[in-house]
Each structure stands twice: as C-alpha cells, then as structure tokens.
Amino acid sequence: MQLTASSLRARLWRRAKKHTSESVWRTLRLVHAYRAYDIPSTDSPLETNGHLHHLGLEYRVEHGTWEWAVSPLLAASSNAGRHPRVIDRDTVAWHGFARRTHRLGKSVGAFWGVCRDDRLGRRRVVPVVGFDWHIERFELAIGYPESALTWHAHPRWAVQARVHPSGGSWRVFSDDLVRRSRFGQAGWRYGVGLTFEATAKHRLTATVGRDVRRSFRFRLENGRSVRAEASAAWLLGVRLQWVE
C-alpha cells in the first residue's frame, strides 16, 4: 500500500487576554490533512477511491501551565465533500486534548493529560504523559504517545528526531454513495527532520521517516471487517512554516 500525504494549518486569529497575573492565549486555526492510498485489491469490494481528508477548525487555549484544544473535523473520503447530503454525525470527528505542565526544576518538567483523536487507527481517548529536559542546545521529550529529541545546532537551524503514531480513521463511500464503511490505518512513524530558518518569518523543514507496523482495516456496513498488513515504507517530506 502506497501513501501520499499533505497537510495545512493556517491561523485565522490569535488573541491574548490578561487574567490575573497570567495571559490567556486563544487561537483559531483552519486545519486540513489529505492522504491518498493506493489500496491493494481484496476479495470484498471496498468503498473508497483512496482519497481521504480531515478538514475543519481547531480552537486552542493556553493559560499558564494548562493547554487545551477542541477540533471538529470532517473525516471522510473525497466524494463526501462533493455531496454534503451523505454527511452525518459519524462523518464528523471530534478531536481534542487537555494537558498540564509542571516544572520540576530549572531544566526539567513533566506533563500529563488526555487526548482524543484517531492517530492509533480509530477514534479513542488516550493518556498524554511524559517528561521534558532542556539542556543547553538540546530538548528531549520522552512520553506517550510521542517522543522527540531536538538539537539546536545553530541559531538558524536545528535537527529533530521524532517517534509518533501515524494512523487515521475515515468514513468512506462508494462511487455511487450507496455503500459506506469505516477505513482505519494504524502504524508508527520514526524520522529525522532538518529545520532551517530561511528568513525571520519563514522556516523550511526537510524530513525523512519510516512507517512501521502498518495495517489497515475496513469495517463494512454488514459488520464484516477486512484487514490487511502493509509492509514498512520510507517517506520524504518538506514543510514550509510562516512565523511571527
């Protein structure tokens, strides 16, 4: 199974409000993630063209040691967007998280919380827990469901190694919109990225990663599940970021 992917996160507005001695930051973003799967044939007909989208908004609040966000998303195959009449509550995914950070020392902290998303292959609530260290030019975050090590080798560029779940879940439809099922992909991704500060407001990141332990599942309308394992795959990526 081959995969092509792209993503967009665009900030629509950001506001700060003074609350006692701390500022409360509120941010609204437009978010879109696209994946195109070349799905191998199976004995059962599969209701998707392989073009899958997450499209919606993210509202995020940062207040002192607390941070939380809620994100309603349309999670469906591309033909659902062209025919809104098929959109139902199972087509809309509610993602979000709440996390608190505790400083344990000058360079060490701990964080805990919960998140709800589909990165593990289906929509579920999972714990968020871990520790982070800031030592000179290094930042290390070890936790679940993701961990990362960042080396700020130069004021204008940095190297990051990261491990995180790479799955997703979508409501998918046949070409005639009569048959529908749920498609889920599970797996883990580890990779390395090089970030370069091209200008004061532009950062360019090149990444290489590998998806491992990949599998996908269709849950059909009749209750049957079609499962298959997929081999590990290498991925190359480029990200451009505008910053203030």
Question: Which descriptors would you attach to this protein?
Answer:
mainly beta, 15-stranded antiparallel sheet, 244 residues, 73% strand, globular, 15 strands, 1 helix
List the helices and strands and how they pair.
Elements: E1 2-19, E2 22-38, E3 51-63, E4 66-77, H1 78-82, E5 92-103, E6 108-117, E7 124-135, E8 138-144, E9 147-154, E10 157-165, E11 168-173, E12 180-199, E13 202-219, E14 225-230, E15 233-242
Antiparallel strand pairs: 1-2, 2-3, 3-4, 4-5, 5-6, 6-7, 7-8, 8-9, 9-10, 10-12, 11-12, 12-13, 13-14, 13-15
Describe the structure.
The protein has one helix at 78-82; strands at 2-19, 22-38, 51-63, 66-77, 92-103, 108-117, 124-135, 138-144, 147-154, 157-165, 168-173, 180-199, 202-219, 225-230, 233-242. The chain is an all-beta fold. It has one domain. The chain has a 15-stranded antiparallel beta sheet that branches.
Task: Summarize the structure in short.
The chain is mostly beta strands and 244 residues long.
Largest sheet: 15 strands, antiparallel
Based on secondary structure, the structural category is: mainly beta
Mean of residue pLDDT values: 90
β-strand amount? over 45%
Distance between the termini: 39 Å
Give a count of the beta strands, DSSP E runs of length 2 or more: 15
Task: Please state the overall shape, judged from the principal axes of the Cα atoms.
Answer: globular
Helix fraction, binned, reads: under 10%
